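Tokens for At1g61320/AtMIF1 LRR domain-containing protein. Go.
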Amino acid sequence: MRKLTSLCLHSVHILGDELEYFLSNSPALKRLDLIACHEIICLKIPCMLLQFQCLKVSLCWELRVIESKARNLSSFILEKGPRAIKVSLGETLQMKNLSMVRSGSDFICYARAELPSNMPKLETLSIGSSHERVATPMLPTKFLFLKHLSISPPSYDYFSLISFLDASPSLKTWLLDVRQFSFNPATIEHETIFGGSSQLRQMPEQHHGCLKSMEIKGFYSAKSLVELTCYILKNAKSLVCLKLDTTFGDPKCDILPPGAGCAEWDKDFVMEARRGAMAIRTYIQDKVLPTVKLTAVEHCRLCHPC
């Protein structure tokens, strides 16, 4: 396979050592996709793959170790896999695209502290964490080339995520996905904007001239989420689009007859989504400049009258 440049294995019964032997005899390989290959426990990318650039692993539930020694790896995507997985990527100075959404605890804090120096050429970053014991720190290190950011955090101090914005002078798009927590109000640990003091925290003004689009999926009434949104509206002078989606998915009532397309969500979830919409109207809507298009997505009241 000396001329093979791209390989995709889907539901293939192959062991890790068999795959390693195959890769060792494919010196021209540039891309490897593994999907639902359940017999691989340890994946090793050998160092002789000098042209290898892209590795994507998905739905490999038995995988426990990923070890890459490929020096020119520039894209690594790990999705829909086991949480208990050890990843070693070797030299990462060429990394431009990193996606590790289902990661272990404190990974968001680790990404902010370590990735600017370990992966200085990052342009696209998608990260998630199962639990964060501490808020994201403010640090002097920068993601100088980062243009697209996606974060799926646990329920914690969302306001601390401004650390990523302040560290990314070239950032153009930011997706924040908190649906897994807004969907289940029992997991919400932090203060709602409608409980106690409504005084919002302030940070010194930082002008961000590149951010064009911000989207928050699963927007709810967490006070720190409102504070983060208001900070962006105040400081991201180039912002064009702001989308705040209080639903758990894409509502279908806009394409089907009323009452025919919406899922039947738990009443508590719908009520929290309603509070999220109220928070938008009360604390955010009047801060949106005329140059910014605000899209607030709510459940339709015909399907969810509560």
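The chain has a mean pLDDT of 88.
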